[in-house]
Each structure stands twice: as structure tokens, then as C-alpha cells.
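Look over both lines before class:
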Amino acid sequence: MVFDGIIIGLIVGFLRGGIRNGLLKFSQIKLKGGLIFPLLLIIQFAIFRFQDNNQALASASNYAFILIYIIGMIFLWMNRNQKGFTLVLLGVFLNFLVMAANGGRMPVSLQAASVLDPYYVDMLKSSAVISKHFLMDASTNLPFLGDIIPLSPPYPRTQAISIGDIVMNFGIFLYIVHLMTPSKNPSDAKRSNLGEPQNS
């Protein structure tokens, strides 16, 4: 769901700051360890893409996801002075917590999964395919932090999300809108782009 916060933030940011200003601000982004985030995304996509054809990768993917979350939280902590990053960190931590408590997998409630494609629901029920998610049952730890919130039309994308997803995406939304909105104080804008603390 991370892309929802990005997309909504971009739409609001462009409306408030204009396309030219928004693109200029994105070109000036400087984050500590800035290559970490895209690298983690590439690794996750690679796992999703190849685990079905590689049993060893599929079996180890839960540990890989845990490591990805830990590295991601370190990156967010390094940039915690950025607007919204504390919320992003909190959301990621909540997702990490429930996954770590359940063997590196994210539990999905049957009620939330009911809005998804029936094929995906059948896959969760049968556990025939190893994935990042599994169907929640009585033995699930911290079930309230799992994917228990269903989203369906009129929401643009049908999905099941967690409390951590909501917190994380709200933080991403705040960061992008703040980044793309022209600052009244040029010195504050410069410090924000450079990753430096702003005056309160």
C-alpha cells in the first residue's frame, strides 16, 4: 500500500505547489543513505518474481523480509528529522512487529481478504504457495496488527491493509506534500531539502 500515500501525496503536492515547483523539489531531495530505499524495493520485487521458481529462495524469503524491514527502519531513523518520517518509521515498525511475531509473514484476516481476487484467497487458504502473507487463524500472534482492514470500491484499489500501512502512508503523504509545497521561509526550504532540522 506504500504507493497509495505516494500517489495521493503527489496529486495534492502538484495541486498546491504546481508541477514545475514539484519537479524542482524532487530533483533537490537529499536523504542520508538515499540509495537504500530503492535498493530494498528492488530486492523485494526480485524475491516476489523469482521465489515461485526457487524453493530455497521461497523458504528463506521470510528471513529476507525481516532483514529488509530492519534495514528500512535504520534508513528512516537516519532521516527522522524529515517531515512525516517519524510516522513512516512507526508504521513500518508495526508491520515489522507483527511479521516478526509470525515467522516473517504478514497475517491476513479472512474477512479482509474477502474483497480480494478469489484466486488469491484460495491460495491463502491452501498455503500451497509461499508468499509474504498467510491466512490468519487462532494461533496468529498480534492479529490486530495484521491485514485486517478491507478496501474496495469506491476506493480506487481493492486491497487488505494493516494499521501500520495506514500510519506509514500518512507519513509518506505528509512528507511529499511538505516537500512540494513552496515554503514561506527560503532558509527553511533549503534546510529541509538538505535533510537538516528546521526551526520550530
